[in-house]
Amino acid sequence: MEQELLREAQERDGADPLAEKRKAFEVDDGTVYLDGNSLGALPKSVNARLADVVTHEWGELRIRSWDESGWWRAPERIGDRIAPLVGAAEGQIVVGDSTSVNVFKAVVAALRLAAEDDPARTELLVDEATFPTDGYIAESAARMTGATLTPLPAAAMPDALGPTTGALLVNHVDYRTGELNDLPGITAAARAAGARTVWDLCHSAGALPVGLDAHGVDLAVGCTYKFLNGGPGSPAYLYVRRALQPRFDSPLPGWTGHADPFAMAPAYVPADGATRGRVGTPDILSMAALEEALTVWEGTDIDAVRAKSLALGDFFLRCVRVYVPEGTVTPLTPEEHARRGSQISLLCEPADAAGPVMDALIKRGVVGDFRRPGVLRFGITPLYTAFRDVERAARVLGEILRDTLT
């Protein structure tokens, strides 16, 4: 069976329409890198781009680069590059700040919009399985705005909507389990109930179709260092639906989001469009790396990426069933395609073995990660993950578990 799976992996790699994309990244066949859901691999062209920004744009042009090198408009320009990957038209995404800061902007703005429409809407629903930052920020935003915070499962949100619901903060993909939440259904239910939606796309943008415009999402945020390969600490982004932009009231009215920033006026007047989501001076070196990294998406269909992601996940789970001793791991990620993101999470039994097991995997050239308690995570990044990678990962995992837990 092992030879059959290995042969199948090689055949599927040979027929993969995205196989050439792997050559654009700093990856090699000596290591299986399945942690792109935490930090994407380096696109090869970023090195030369950053060198030019440092030596020419900063070193030679200096202050002139704000105009001549396009530094000042980078947040909007790069936002327009991200837009097609999340199903948004141009002019609705601005890049800058961290995910946490953008969550704060979006949640407070959503609560303000809801209260403006109906002062009784003072409840904020939050995905109880959310990434911790979202929960921390939501709790603070609720305190600041006088809202009531209600954590609950994402799937329960449509039934929990009522006349006092102001906004929902939901993760598109659960970072622990890899489960894909129902963005179209939850958004439609919220809109019908008169509530505003804020979606966290950190674990979905660049891995699967999102459809922000098509599904009527109000606000969304996301990081760029995972599936978008922008590099460690690369700036996040904020999406504001075009129809809401004139009413978007940021709780962080920074000078670069001003209608006339260089007037240095004492009173804040927000800029038009998504630009009003800007706060401070753009972080140019990180933005340049991100902008160059996004060039790997040129000519790539996000539907093809999703198809490969699902195929890789299916194949990995098949290999796990063959290679891994029964009773040592349990898949947490739903097998149904409609409920799966782009990672496979396995619950290690016993849970306290997960850390040592992942350490052993990394020592043998298979890089994933783990989340307490007991979750082994394997990220599938279709632009550079191959079928031979997931076959090898499952095979090595089985060998380690056989040696340590049986």
Arithmetic mean of pLDDT: 97
User: How many strands appear in the DSSP assignment?
Assistant: 13
Helices, by number, come to 13
Strand content: 5-15%
Largest sheet: 7 strands, mixed
Distance between the termini: 21 Å
- Order of strands side by side in the largest beta sheet? 2-8-7-6-5-3-4
Question: Based on CA inertia axes, which overall geometry fits?
Answer: globular
SS class: alpha/beta
Taken in chain order, the helices and strands follow as: HEHHHEHEHEHEHEHEEHHEEHEEEH
Stretches where pLDDT is under 50 for at least 5 consecutive residues are none
Radius of gyration: 22 Å
> Approximately how much helix is present in the residues?
25-40%
Outline the structure in words.
- With 406 residues, the protein is of the alpha/beta class.
- Helices cover 38% and strands 13% of the residues.
- It contains 13 helices and 13 strands.
- The chain has a seven-stranded mixed beta sheet with strand order 2-8-7-6-5-3-4, with helices on both faces.
- Strand 5 (165-171), helix 8 (183-193) and strand 6 (196-200) form a beta-alpha-beta unit.
- Helix 1 (2-14) packs antiparallel against helix 13 (387-404) and helix 5 (99-117) runs parallel beside helix 6.
- It is globular and about 70 Å long.
- The two termini are 21 Å apart.
